[in-house]
Each structure stands twice: as structure tokens, then as C-alpha cells.
Prior knowledge:
Structural class: alpha+beta
Order of helices and strands: EHHEEEHEHEHEE
Distance between the termini: 39 Å
Strand order of the largest sheet: 1-2-3-4-5-7-6-8
Strand content: 25-35%
Amino acid sequence: MSVLRPFHATDMFKFNHVNLDLWTETYAINFYLGYFSRWPDMCAVQETPQGRIMGYVIGKAEGAGPERHGHVTALTVAPEYRRLGLSRKFISWLEQVSDENQRGLFVDLYVRCVNHAAITMYEGFGYSVYRRVKEYYSSMGLGLNPRDEEDGFDMRKPLSRDPMRRSVRANGRDITVSAHEVS
């Protein structure tokens, strides 16, 4: 049995095996510390009874008024713990915090356009593509189509304060913006 608990600063010394994934964006220590201090209720880890980190989610609250929303900055699960439903558990938890604590209208996240497994997973969780953001990511050097490798999809899921689903759109894959146009 594993446990979902708040992310502690000392967890940064125990999560390298989780971050060694090609698709995982990693950040400098001060970036993580900034999130833990500003949005502690939106950062969590899943760990085994022995204390091994299985994965983590880091989020934040953005916007004001009708643009208030939760944002998934990073969600990753160590390869040996995938397909156990941890991502769904993390996302559900962050959606609940975004809805109840942060009073957000929706939750959004960014994913590389070439990360088909993640896109399919998020669509299965109820997210849809809101827009394509050109050159959101730096190149991974995979030799793929650079446009797809560097572009990101902004995916969104409405929360309880958006029963009319105004925060999403049906044709999001057809809408393209530059990285400078998103906050």
C-alpha cells in the first residue's frame, strides 16, 4: 500500500530515479522550492511503505476572477510504478484542490505534441486540447519533426464552476499561438 502525501523539500534528494525519464521536464532546485513555498497544497508525492518515491505532481494556481485555474506544472511516475493508476490519482487530487481550495474554473497542463501516450492518457481523464503552442519546449534532439517535438498542446478540463464548459473548445488542435502569447 502506498501513500499520497505533501511534497517535502527533502524529497528532492530522493526523486532522481523518477526524473530520469525522457519526457519528464526537470528544473533547478530553486524552482521546486518556489513551488513548495508558494503552493504547498498543490505539490504531492506518492511513496511506498519503505519511503521510495513512486511519482509526484507539482501544480500551482494561476489567474484571477474568471481566469482562475489550477495548472499541472509537472506530473511524473517512475517507470516501475506506471500502469497502477497513480497518474489518475495525482490528477484527481490536483483537480480537487484546484476546485475546492483554489476555487478554479479549470485545470490546464502542457504536453509535447509528440507525447502521444500522455495525450491519450489525459484525454482519458477528460482533458481536451485547447490550443497548440508553437515552440513551447526546447528540442529533445530525437530527429522527429521539429514542429511537433517543440510544440506543446495546452490541454484543459473544466471544473465545477464551469458547468457550461466555457474554458474548453472543440477545435483546439486547429488553434495555434506562439509561446509568447501564453502566460
